[in-house]
Amino acid sequence: MKHSLAYRYGLSVPTIDLKLSLEIPDLKNLNAIDNFLVEYLQVPADDLKMQKQSDNKQSSAWKYVMRLLHANSALLRIGHLPVFFCGKIIAIEKNTIDSNKWSVNITASYIDDIPINHLVSTIKVSAHIIQKVNSANDIEYDHFDKLIKNVMRPLRMLTGSGISTLPILRAAHMLGIPVRHLGMGHYRLGWGANSRVFSRSAVDEDTAIGAAVSSRKDHTIKLLVAAGIPCPEHFLVHSLQEALTAAGKLEYPVVVKPADRERSEGVTAGISDNNTLAFAWKVAHQWSSNILVESHIDGRCYRLMVANRKVLYVVKRMPRSIIGDGVNTINYLLELDAKTQLSRPFWIRKKQINADEETISSIERQGYKLSSVPQLGDHIWLRNIESTEWGETTVDVTTDVHPDNIELAERAARALGLSNAGIDLITTDITRPWWESGGKITEVNFRPHFGGTIAAQQRMTAYLDSLLSNRGRIPIHIYYGQDDAYVKAHQRLMEDRAAGRFSVLCTNETMQGPHARIAFDLPQETPVKHRLYAICRIALQDARVETLLVVIQDVDLFDSGFPFDRVNSLECMSSKNVDAGDPSPLLEKLHKLVTLA
């Protein structure tokens, strides 16, 4: 096993080289395997389509290993790792000692800071799954749930990633933006001065104060009101009696919610009497001891997604619903919805909604009973409010929003010091200004769910382009040779300094900035042949660096791989390894590692 954490074979992601010993079965159910990969493991259908086109000229062993790699990358994504390249087969050959086994050399994506044993575990589970599907006559998908959970849970604990991480990083991958994991779900997108750090949907410009304040709804409202932003009247209470008193002052209807929870957990809206308030208090108190009672605002909730300090899109948020078919009762449709969710992979299922007290209350408000038969196409809301906990329906209304509402959302994000934020505005008419319709902001969400809606996906490219100049890339120039290579690189360093550009020159011993050497420290166990790799990587994480100049005076970096996937130029000076007049052997090595822009 060899993992270089470098870019190799012209791939746009860091890789790991693995040598596997596999038992490769006869592929009796290739179609069943492919269906399983797409339907259950959510492998993109286009990836499998391309795979099938490559099958024609390949051996049975090759077909099996490629399915294994697709399954493995899918399991890693289920564990919230941004693995969008399934892998590359370097060699497959019969084991000379054991004729039942094959020796397989592969290169696969590698995510920094993830222990190798976790990656090996996913490969083993993937092999077990593929073999089971291949030999089964009838596949019960829930048979694999336990296996996948055993892989998924430790990976998610390691990364600390959330539901917004993969959509953002998938878009970055499609755009060719460099990505490196910094640990615990923090990712650097891009190099040097053109890089940004992400954690879920949060970015490095989100302030710690904004994150802290937005975790408490009462503190958020206080700060927003001080900034002249409309919010509901509210009281922070700690007992049912205090809640009843607060409702008396506000007058019904009111809303009860935990002050320090997210995803609409424990929220009850439209409360119109003391009995309902007592029930709502009990629900909220299960989540927190800090409870808000606030005035009810008429209208629908709209999520205005502020990204890079500007409203990127707006969706109307509606509670999760079932849709009438004109034939069946609401109770039957509920049971059908539950069966549908159970048939989906467990990691993308919506939370099951039964005919509980909250469901009955919601459908009765709409004039229905469990025995009612709604008309074809009628939406029956199963909750009184929209929430990411129970699932919701969203409609893109970006083009309908009044400019004053957009300005209000951007001002609310600035008031909390957030570059990215989910602003919830309740209004009766999003096309009218908030001050005319009586709209109010009820929440400001730090690290909001971003990427799960069609509205977000359609705008992800524009969002990343607004954050990352030149798709996160900076010029990288390589100078190969001895003293003359260093002289040429240093001359470029001085030219950049004169032009006001912050360039850094890296050798296997030093890092030099435009005015002086830059001190750094490497772990003592860093091998000599990895020093230049490590030094270059330090420079790429420095947000001042606008250009990277690399002097290579031996072939170590070509053997170990580069910490970047693309270079803008390569100048080959005279050296004992390569003649200046014929750099083709060097170029051949380079093209196996990086792309020459």
Topology:
Blueprint: E1 2-7, E2 14-22, H1 30-39, H2 45-55, H3 60-78, E3 88-94, E4 102-109, H4 116-135, H5 145-159, H6 165-174, E5 179-183, E6 186-189, E7 196-199, E8 202-203, H7 208-214, H8 217-226, E9 234-237, H9 240-250, E10 254-258, E11 268-271, H10 274-285, E12 291-295, E13 300-307, E14 310-319, E15 321-323, H11 330-342, H12 357-365, E16 379-381, E17 392-396, H13 403-415, E18 421-427, H14 434-437, E19 440-445, H15 454-467, E20 476-480, H16 483-498, E21 503-506, E22 511-512, H17 531-540, E23 547-552, H18 556-560, E24 566-567, E25 569-572, H19 584-593, E26 595-596
Helix pairs in contact: 3-4, 4-5, 6-15, 9-10
Describe, in plain words, how this protein is organized in 3D.
- With 597 residues, the chain is an alpha+beta fold.
- It has a five-stranded antiparallel beta sheet. Strands 22-21-23-20-25 form a five-stranded mixed beta sheet, sandwiched between helices. It has a four-stranded antiparallel beta sheet with strand order 1-2-4-3, covered by helices on one side.
- A hairpin with a 6-residue loop joins strand 6 and strand 7 (196-199).
- It is globular, with a radius of gyration of 28 Å.
